[in-house]
Amino acid sequence: MQGDIDRSRIDKRSCFRRYWCILLLLMLLVAAAIAPNSYTPPLNQPFDYANGTPKMRGVNLGGWLVLEPFITPSLFDPYIMDGVVDEWTLCEHLGPDAARKLLEDHYASWVTEDTFVQIKKLGLNHVRVPIGFWAMGSLVRGEPYVANISWNYLLRAIEWARKHGIRVMVELHGAPGSQNGWNHSGRVGQIRWLNGTDGALNAQRTLPYLQQMAAFFSDPAYTHVSPVMGILNEPAGFLIGGEAVVNWYKQAVAAIRQATGLGRGPWAVLHDGFLSVDAFGGFKAQTDSLMIDSHLYIMFTESLMSLSQTAQLKFACQSWGSLATTSTKTFGPTMVGEFSVAVNDCATYLNGINVGARWDGTFGNSAYRHSPDSTCADKNDASTYTADYKTFLKQFFLAQIEAFEQGAGWFYWNFKTESNPLWSYFDGVEGGWLPKDASDRGLGYCTSLGYPVNLPSVDESG
């Protein structure tokens, strides 16, 4: 499958005629000079991640090359009675041929060039693209994923991004064995990465994929359009053990720089593994182009979900603002790779297929319920959102991004969903609770609410 410009063919074998070589190279030069907006440098100029100016402002292209039931429930609904709960079981149930057809149809339609046209119009400058290890290599016996297909669609999307001046961060979202046991790693259940019988083997299997990514995006053809790569999404440090995760990160960074050279190649992003930033004190962020990533949500923590709207705004401004400031001073460049305006966990399949929600008291064995009469019945129907609720959602978004811009910037999760509007940037803009231009807003928003971001403490009583 070809993109607008397939760089792999710009070599002596494909350029039979000098005219076409020159034409293609001119097209690349023109594309390199494109900027998505006035505050972002064009692709032929470096983006200053080290100093955090300008800010990364982006969306995730989630649920695309790694499936997530809550983003695209229609892919899973026909097979739930057959025990399908993630990409692993979906591919296993369908078999290789049917799985490949379903996935290719999805890859071709979920993200198109129009996706990047819209992202550019919204004042954004980055996208974060999750991929699984199966995008790049062969599988071991028993792994049912469809291999070596999604990478082609990624490359086509990168060319669309180039055309519209958008920078692309590609992140390994699914590692061999699953680094967290959640469906967005590819497989629900037991963590078999740095954990269990095959944990050490799977952790080592992961390293060559990272080297492959780093070497590929170090090519001059991709250096400026894909200048950042995520090492691994959300390794469960709280279950695996923080020391084990940090030690593996050290191996990963060494492997990446073996492929690229010290301080060369793409910026490498370490997800914090749900650990304190102090755990990463042994890394040299500035000298080796490293960035740390936190994913900050309200709805997965019962104490935060229970706060009043006023207290949630205050928490975002002060606690998350303080986190971004402290991490930047302590570690170095710090980004927030995922966040949302959702303050409940009612999105269909958000916690997993048939798992339930904390909000209405149906989540697993938890005794929590937001209130005695709380229900998820209307939470995913944007037509029921009142003007006051939309005002709060917009305030919450602005409070969060001001806090996150105390660091290097942010990526909203997600760019769109099939049926969960609070998780869709595009739906939020259309519905009026997210801004039409992320760069066109007043500064000092938290201060205007009375919660300046430089205050470290939060009164959670509301």
**What's the structural domain tally?**
1
Coarse morphology = globular
Work out the strand percent.
5-15%
Radius of gyration: 22 Å
Q: Which residue ranges are poorly predicted, with pLDDT under 50 across at least 5 consecutive positions?
A: 1-16, 456-462
The CATH C-level class name: Alpha Beta
From the N-terminal CA to the C-terminal CA, the straight-line distance is: 54 Å
Q: Tell me roughly what share of residues is in helical segments.
A: 25-40%
Q: Strand sequence of the main sheet, in spatial order?
A: 1-2-3-4-5-6-7-8
**Biggest beta-sheet profile:** 8 strands, parallel, barrel
Helix-strand pattern, N to C? HEHHHEHEHEHHEEHHEHEHH
DSSP, total strands: 8
Family: Belongs to the glycosyl hydrolase 5 (cellulase A) family.
GO biological process, one term: glucan catabolic process
Protein name: glucan 1,3-beta-glucosidase
Transmembrane segments: 20-39
Structural features, described:
The chain is an alpha/beta fold. It has a single domain (33-449), classed as TIM Barrel. 34% of the residues lie in helices and 9% in strands. The protein has 13 helices and eight strands. An eight-stranded parallel beta barrel has the order 1-2-3-4-5-6-7-8, surrounded by four helices. β2 (126-132), α5 and β3 form a beta-alpha-beta unit. The chain crosses the membrane at residues 20-39. It comes from Mortierella hygrophila. Its main location: membrane.
